[in-house]
Design a protein that fits this description.
Blueprint: E1 4-5, E2 11-12, H1 32-41, H2 45-48, E3 55-56, E4 67-68, H3 100-104, H4 109-128, H5 160-175, E5 188-192, E6 199-200, E7 203-204, E8 209-210, H6 214-221, H7 223-230, E9 235-238, E10 242-243, E11 246-247, H8 252-262, E12 271-274, H9 278-283, H10 292-302, H11 311-321, H12 327-343, H13 366-379, E13 381-385, E14 399-404, H14 428-433, E15 438-442, H15 453-462, E16 466-471, H16 491-501, E17 507-512, H17 519-522, E18 529-534, H18 540-549, H19 567-570, H20 590-593, E19 610-614, E20 623-625, H21 626-631, E21 643-653, E22 659-668, E23 680-690, E24 695-703, H22 704-707, E25 709-710, E26 716-718, E27 721-727, E28 733-740, E29 744-747
Parallel strand pairs: 5-9, 8-10, 9-12, 14-15, 14-16, 16-17, 17-18, 20-28
Antiparallel strand pairs: 1-2, 3-4, 6-7, 10-11, 13-18, 19-21, 21-24, 22-23, 22-27, 25-26, 26-29, 27-28
Length: 755
């Protein structure tokens, strides 16, 4: 194969001297799409099938190299088919950030963009040294609907507005700006759509049919993906499940009608890839078509361009012979995929590509290392504190701390799933053991009452000044292909923690991993404090210790609802409905429709006291005419993004400890179709470093879309009625206003005609 070999040994197409040199794919004067079409025009039909699968053999005749499309980077460059870590030395590790569920708790979009920028820089460096491709199948942006979902850790949380804002910042950092000439990497929003079941009581993702009505599809499951489309993400991934009877990878309704037509996601380089082996599931177990060839053809014709797996390569040739597909369909899919490589600068020389100079010197920089710790610190949530925190560590005498529990000395568990290789993994015990004036004692994992772990733990605790019990779910109980059935603490855990707390020593529960029902310990008078640390990444232990000792003040907010343990008995995972339903017994899902939480969405304590007060806009009688509001939207690309009001919120630190503060703005009120949600998040802003006695002002930017609600057909409508803006959890300040006039449709949702 003729190719261009860079100084670092990576093979790129040779547009200077090889067979491709005479093909217009190398002509930079042409558009990205025209360049890709020129390449495809040179292909023989039998050469096309191999270019439709994730491990592409290339075309030696044309000088087109092989290419691996499958890379992962959920929270750092991750082990995956296209990413190769060295055994030692350069490229043997990358920066390992916290899982998105913890970074989501920071409610800091600037932080997310910064993290994504580091990840994409490191990804490019790996690519330059022949250790990765450039198409990354991240992020997972499905809303975290049910607390049992094994992959909830991969998402920023349960709220669609939060996820939409988060992913917009993330894509900007991953792809190298809002609309760059050369993409840094390609991000892939997954899993499209209504995917949030792995394997719950035998209900497997490969065969699950998510039944979702148009109203909740449009208002809850789809907004993060619409944000991806508006951010010009390079790729979408269709999911394993069916949606309302149709496998998503064969659904022209969601792939064409909604994604490409309604959201105008139509750039030449924008590609849809299947989840891995999802195309074979279209045939079995979904039984969407009678033959494998017809199933594969249905996915290609619906708009799935690239197959993770080999299904296209195996079955499309026969489908072609049977007349189920033609060259036009094959060419369109390949054009989109290779246009993405052109947009990435894959066909340009090193001198022409702004990212080809990146090297291992740009991996795990001091800035990246600090950012990984900061990302964990910003997300950690203080749930309970009787005043024991921050810990008082004195230079005069050592503080003896007994570290107990599954997470006390955790290493790889700190990363969660979809992880890469980290340079180090610091547990809470390790971080404490490296801290002056702390005598850290690791007392192990107690196990159950019949083991000898209890006496060891109790003995160490009795001799300590303070007990830190670090525990919670790990990827052993929640992960891809693995949903939970329970969200309570086990009897053994409650037993040992109760015994430890009853010693009368200060007792701090550091709850890690996903959410469990903390009610037994919130209500226990001898449990001094509870901190949630999620999956905090390489520096997780350092971040936790910094929070516990007050080196950093906690300001994270729960990005999910912490449900009571009995919730799993009230509603099956397979019930996709959000609203309470007396007929099915569904009590409601998320903070928008459920008000019996153990700890509510958005909750988080501080080491100081804050007041947050809305500065009400200067408007006459706080009444707004809908026609006046919508008439002012000329020239706005999306009418739902037309500004309504920027509402200032004065935030005052009335205590002594310098701290961040997350300003959360919710809307409530009686407007639109019943039932009315309890409230819904419409804006947020994290303020940084507010000193004691100092006031800062947050700005909550409300749009007409913030006010709109979806009707039963999924249309986004601006309704007359009463509205209330609520700030903080629990609410500290309220602004009431009214809209008058006729309802106005902000977005007409495409209807599924079944065609």
């Amino acid at each position: 194969m003729s190719s261009s070999v860079s100084a670092v040994g990576h093979i790129f197409p040779d547009c200077g001297n090889g067979p491709l040199a005479g093909n217009d794919v190398c002509n930079k004067e042409l558009s990205v799409g025209d360049r890709a079409r020129a390449l495809v025009a040179a292909l023989e039909t039998e050469e096309k099938y191999g270019l439709l699968v994730s491990t592409s053999p290339g075309v030696e005749r044309l000088g087109l190299p092989s290419y691996e499309w499958w890379q992962e980077a959920l929270h750092g460059v991750a082990s995956s088919p296209g990413v190769t870590f060295a055994e030692t030395g350069n490229f043997s590790y990358a920066t390992s950030f916290p899982q998105p569920i913890l970074m989501g708790a920071a409610f800091d979009d600037d932080l997310i963009e910064a993290v994504a920028t580091v990840v994409s820089t490191e990804a490019r460096a790996f690519n330059n040294f022949n250790r990765s491709g450039l198409n990354y199948w991240t992020p997972n942006i499905n809303p975290y609907r049910d607390p049992r979902w094994g992959r909830g850790q991969e998402t920023p949380g349960e709220d669609p507005f939060h996820l939409s804002s988060y992913v917009t910042a993330l894509i900007k950092g991953l792809q190298g700006g809002e609309d760059p000439d050369t993409l840094k990497i390609i991000a892939t929003c997954k899993h499209f759509s209504a995917y949030d079941i792995e394997d719950w009581l035998g209900n497997e993702r490969y065969e699950f049919d998510a039944e979702v009505n148009p109203q909740e599809l449009a208002e809850y499951y789809m907004p993060p993906f619409e944000a991806c489309a508006r951010a010009n993400v390079g790729s979408f991934m269709c999911s394993y499940n069916a949606l309302n009877g149709v496998p998503t990878c064969s659904s022209s309704y969601i792939l064409q009608d909604i994604l490409r037509d309604h959201w105008n996601w139509t750039r030449d380089y924008q590609t849809i890839v299947s989840d891995c082996d999802a195309l074979q599931n279209v045939y079995l177990p979904h039984e969407w078509r009678d033959t494998r060839e017809a199933s594969a053809a249905s996915s290609l014709l619906a708009g799935t361009d690239l197959n993770c797996g080999t299904y296209y390569q195996i079955h499309l040739p026969t489908a072609y012979e049977q007349g189920l597909i033609n060259d036009t369909a094959l060419d369109l899919a390949i054009t989109r995929s290779y246009a993405s490589l052109i947009k990435l600068g894959y066909f340009e020389s090193a001198e022409e590509n702004p990212y080809r100079s990146l090297s291992f010197a740009d991996v795990f920089t001091p800035y990246a290392e600090d950012l990984a710790r900061k990302a964990a610190e910003e997300g950690i949530v203080l749930i309970k504190n009787d005043g024991i925190l921050p810990l008082q560590v004195s230079e005069e005498s050592n503080l003896t701390i007994a570290f107990i529990g599954d997470w006390a000395n955790a290493t790889t568990d700190m990363q969660g799933n979809y992880q890469g290789i980290a340079k180090y993994l610091h547990s809470p015990y390790y971080a404490a053991s490296q801290t002056p004036n702390i005598n850290a004692v690791y007392a192990g994992i107690p196990g159950d009452p019949v083991t000898d772990g209890y006496p060891k733990a109790l003995e160490a605790a009795a001799a300590a000044d303070l007990i830190i019990y670090a525990d919670g779910p790990t990827v052993a109980s929640e992960a891809e292909s693995k949903d939970r059935t329970l969200i309570r603490w086990s009897g053994e855990k409650i037993d040992i923690m109760t015994q430890l707390a009853d010693l009368g020593k200060p007792f701090v529960l550091v709850q890690m991993g996903g959410q469990r029902d903390d009610a037994p310990f919130i209500n226990h008078p001898n449990v001094s404090a509870i901190v949630w640390g999620g999956y905090p990444g390489q520096a997780g232990g350092d971040a936790i210790l910094n929070i516990l000792t007050g080196k950093v003040a906690p300001a994270g907010r729960l990005p999910v609802t912490q449900y009571p343990a009995h919730y799993v008995d009230d509603v099956p995972m397979t019930d996709m409905g959000l609203r309470p339903n007396a007929e099915t017994g569904n009590p409601g899902r998320t903070y928008m429709w459920y008000d019996q939480a153990t700890v509510p969405f958005g909750f988080g304590l501080h080491y100081t006291n804050f007041t947050a007060s809305i500065v009400a806009p200067d408007t006459e009688d706080d009444v707004f005419d809908i026609n006046d509001l919508t008439s002012a939207c000329d020239g706005v690309a999306h009418v739902d993004q037309c500004p309504f009001q920027t509402v200032p919120v004065d935030v005052s630190n009335t205590g002594a400890t310098t701290s961040d503060f997350v300003t959360l703005g919710f809307l409530a009120g009686e407007h639109g179709p019943e039932p009315y949600p309890i409230k819904r998040l419409v804006a947020y802003q994290r303020l940084h470093g507010i000193e004691g006695g100092v006031q800062q002002t947050a700005s909550l930017n409300l749009t007409l879309g913030s006010l709109g609600r979806r009707d039963e057909d999924g249309n986004l409508v601006l309704y007359p009625g009463d509205y209330s803006l609520l700030v903080d959890v629990p609410t500290q300040s309220t602004w009431d206003f009214t809209l008058e006039g006729e309802p106005f449709v902000l977005d007409e949702w495409p209807q599924d005609t079944g065609a």
